[in-house]
Amino acid sequence: MFLHNYKYSLKVLLKNKTLIFWTLLFPIVLGTFFNMAFGNINSEETLDIFKVGVIDSVEYKNNTVLNQVFNDLSNNKSDNYLFDIVLNDEEELIKDIENNKIIGYIKVKEDIKVFIKENGIYQTIFKNVVDQIIEYQSLYENVFEYEQSKYQDIYELKLIGDKLEKLINNTKSNINDTSSNNMNVFMIEFYTLVAMACLYGAILSIYVVNNFLANMSKKGARISISPIKKSVMLLSGLLASFTVQLFGILVLIIYTKYILNIDYGSNVLNVCILSFIGSLTGLILGLFISSIIKKDDEFKISVCISYTMICSFFSGMMGITMKYLVDKKFPIINYINPANMITDGFYSLYYYNTPERFYFNIISLIVYSIVLLVISFVVLRREKYDSI
Predict the structure, then answer these.
(1) Same domain, 37 and 159
(2) Domain endpoint, select from 104, 138, 169
(3) Which domain holds residue 135?
(4) How confident is the model over 48-105, as pLDDT tens digits?
(5) I need a surface site. Which of 25, 68, 123, 183 has the fewest CB within 10 A?
């Protein structure tokens, strides 16, 4: 019975032109327009070596921790080579920063102060480096004070000082560029497009669930009074919609990768995993919308499309600026935005060598899906009808 209903549901879905348009054709058409409009824009940004200023002073020269880390970061033979240092007096450094010769400078007195002209990615990196150095320096000082309080013998204190000095001299900066590619912000639009297509799978499951509900369709009324097990009917229909959805996502990824030359990274398995879970999330989203909204198909589908487009907008479909703004000002939105989870998952595969960010998005999608699934089943189990 399960297999029979699965085949029947599959045929019904494939014959519905409206569903096929929104889930299969619309993302491909939209992707083609994206490529025509923005295909000649290749906004690639690399992490270039930049220049920073340091006020030449006795305090700077005596600051062992700062010197050690800065020497490592400004050594062009080091793996951590990040910037070049301009050593000068403050007056000259102010001129340099006004003429954009340096992105900022530091002043070392009793504490370390950072001066920058404007905000930007390099200025942020520079400030974070200095903040990290200050933390390390504070840690060393606290350790020395603690050890000093335990020992009073001059010889023992000298040994402690020698050990700390050796530790400082062996200190290496822990700043690495974990990216594997140049950053092409044009890719974000297409990753968001795939995310949108995944969530559009909700339209298919809305159609299936509405046909299952007695108060939404004549077929649902017949199912509710038939001896057929309702769970078998629902699950087979949802599996059919999931099959159509996965096929559509596969076609979209092949089209964008081989026709539009969109780079999804080299890890094909993770691309498949993300596509699978993203499609499953879309399916569950449709189940959730159908269970909590007591309206007809058209209203539910309009809610689904509106929600998906809002999520896609915040994820960077209309430009990476919005994604950056939300990440910066309202990060909580993207933590509950399924389109952003999928987009960010694809982006992490393309841009980063490390898998942590990818797995974080996968786990977030799974948690999001489980929450919606639990709510949906609780609501559906409570469905009762006075008359059919």
Answers:
(1) no
(2) 169
(3) 48-169
(4) 788 999 999 888 888 877 888 888 888 888 777 888 999 999 999 999 999 989 999 9
(5) 25
